[in-house]
Amino acid sequence: MTRQARPSQRTKKKGQTTQKKDKAPPKVGKVKLQDNQKRTESSRKWLLRQLNDPYVSKAKDLGYRSRAAFKLIEIDAKYRLLKPGMTIVDLGAAPGGWTQVAAEKLKVGTLKGAAKGSRIIALDLSEIAPLKDVTILTADFTDEATIQALMDNLAEGAARGVDVVLSDMAAPASGMTDVDHIRIMNLVEAAYEFACLVLKPGGAFVAKVLQGGTEATLLTRLKKAFTKVSHFKPAASRKDSAEIYVVAQGFRGSPGKL
Ligand SMILES: C[S@@+](CC[C@H](N)C(=O)[O-])C[C@H]1O[C@@H](n2cnc3c(N)ncnc32)[C@H](O)[C@@H]1O
Predict the structure, then answer these.
(1) Does 57 map to a domain?
(2) Strands across the sheet containing 162-167
(3) Fewer Cβ atoms within 10 A, N terminus or C terminus of the chain?
(4) pLDDT digit string (tens) for 216-239?
(5) Catalytic site residue 233?
(6) Does the pTM exceed 0.90?
(7) Where does ligand 1 bind, in terms of residues with CB under 6 Å?
(8) Which of 36, 63, 90 is at the close of a domain?
(9) 47, 63, 79 - which closes a domain
């Protein structure tokens, strides 16, 4: 069990309304780079995009570790997936924006969350800084040993299955569209197969896929395994990014090996 860095709360001044996290972020003035530092063209573009991205400043304001947090906030506002008492596995979780949002929704790190038995396991190739009462695993999801480690963690205590499997996993972009597509689809397929092993009946699976939606074969499998399958592009997902999320609800099976 590790310590949770709670998203900071803004001090509410008299007459000021509380900022809603699922509303569009405030527009910020366009920032230009005026320093004389040597940068490559791509790092210059990246920096400018970060500086001019309203979700980056809103994430900083609200204490989220990544702008990606707003994608899960939007997904949850639309599909109502995350509730106290649930067990959630968050794949590709670093630096932890989605995990912070899930922890808020499940009240993990609070007495209420503990009393209800809320549980989050967050996994990534990269290290994730501690979050209170969240189990963090640093490993490659595509390794068999990792699946076993996840199953062992889930089987600890009451083995009652998982309510939601989240996957925001994405391999670093290679610049080659076909290669990136294959890599992300391999990760989604592996996440789907894991979800089928651990989800409770009625459980949900959310995964990052690429524009054009989920590949036909995977979509067919998802439609067999879940009662409802939708695609959703949150406003916080960059318009020039091909990413989109598949949201599968109402798992028809029963947990495999738990
Ligand atoms: C877009 S980031 C996730 C952002 C995160 N959801 C958040 O809210 O902060 C994608 C993550 O997928 C992770 N990833 C990619 N391939 C992976 C793999 N095989 N196993 C585990 N994590 C992986 C990357 O390390 C990266 O941190």
Answers:
(1) yes
(2) 134-138, 119-124, 87-91, 162-167, 199-210, 243-251, 226-232
(3) N
(4) 889 999 999 999 999 999 999 988
(5) no
(6) no
(7) 65-66, 68-69, 92-98, 123-126, 140-142, 168-171, 187
(8) 63
(9) 63
